[in-house]
Amino acid sequence: MGNKMTRRSFLKNATFGTLGSIGAAYGGYYYAHDIEPYWLTIKRDSVESERLPDEFNNFKIVQITDTHLGFQLTLEDMKKIVRKVNQESPDLIVFTGDLFDNPSHIGQSSYNDLISILSNLKAKHGQYWIYGNHDHGGYGTDPIKEVMNQGGFSLLQNDYDNINLNGSQILLAGVDDVLLGDPRLNQLIPDDKSDTFNILLCHEPDYADEVKDYNFDLQLSGHSHGGQVQIPFYGYIITPLLGQKYVEGKTTIGERPLHLLTSRGLGTTRLPFRFLCRPEINVITLNAT
Ligand SMILES: [Fe+2]
């Protein structure tokens, strides 16, 4: 008897084939919606510079960014992030913008809860932050400033601070959000600091093409979410304005040179999915050469 497909076996194969496809689609949805967005990684990078004073060799900066609380991540997730950051015993903690996805939807009790969560973060040389576009959006400029301030973070809005260690100094600057703020790069480095090791916090990574001309050695950015969903052989699915060229990872540009690190960030926006683009906390170790 031949291997002729009967009507019944055809229907059976077709049914299982369809169910298999639905199952695979649902599995993909479940993974990208319920698993990967919460599957935190610690991304470690080192940056070498001849301008870094020896005293700062092995200085450890922990960067968190783009939590977009209220869209997919919750305050419970933020507690987990804070625990992981503290486990790293950072010398310095920086937050590079987009705390809530839409500040206009957030009530005072959530702000109060977040203040007590952020207050648990500890770094030897303090905690600093800058505005992202979602912080200025949704009338967030003032309330977010209050939350971060009470949570123990110093705002760098077109401003800088000196970080001192055993008689040596590096400079940490922050520029206002490029898309919705008023960025002023030209007022960030005093003339006598043009040859020290200078760090810039800047929400949008692609602004590095301007920053490279301003005596900075290191730029820490977020904003791009690493594309959030990465499709093999296709690329990034979500890339916002000024987060389309330097979408993730470490790049070196300009003559000084400027080292740029773009974090994939922690939260999501627009679509509650991550795929092949796990959320990350960034640990950056500085090395003197
Ligand atoms: Fe963001």
What does this molecule look like?
The protein has 289 residues and is of the alpha/beta class. Helices cover 25% and strands 24% of the residues. The chain has 6 helices and 14 strands. The chain has helices at 7-35, 75-87, 108-118, 133-136, 141-150, 208-211, and strands at residues 41-49, 59-64, 92-95, 127-129, 153-155, 159-165, 168-174, 198-201, 218-221, 230-231, 235-236, 249-253, 258-262, 280-288. The strands form 3 sheets. It has a 6-stranded mixed sheet with strand order 1-14-2-3-4-5. The chain has a 6-stranded mixed sheet with strand order 6-7-8-9-13-12. A two-stranded antiparallel sheet has the order 10-11. α2 links the parallel β2 and β3 (92-95). α2 packs parallel to α3 (108-118). The longest helix has 29 residues, at 7-35. The protein is globular and about 85 Å long. Residues 66, 68, 98, 132, 134, 223, 225, 265, 269 line the site of fe (ii) ion.
Core attributes:
globular; alpha/beta; six-stranded mixed sheet; binds fe (ii) ion; 6 helices
Order of helices and strands: HEEHEHEHHEEEEHEEEEEE
The average pLDDT score comes to 94
Strand content: 15-25%
Q: Characterize the largest beta sheet: strand count, sense, and whether it forms a barrel.
A: 6 strands, mixed
Strand order of the largest sheet: 1-14-2-3-4-5
Q: Supply Rg.
A: 22 Å
Number of strands: 14
Spatial shape: globular
Multimeric state: single chain
Low-confidence stretches: none
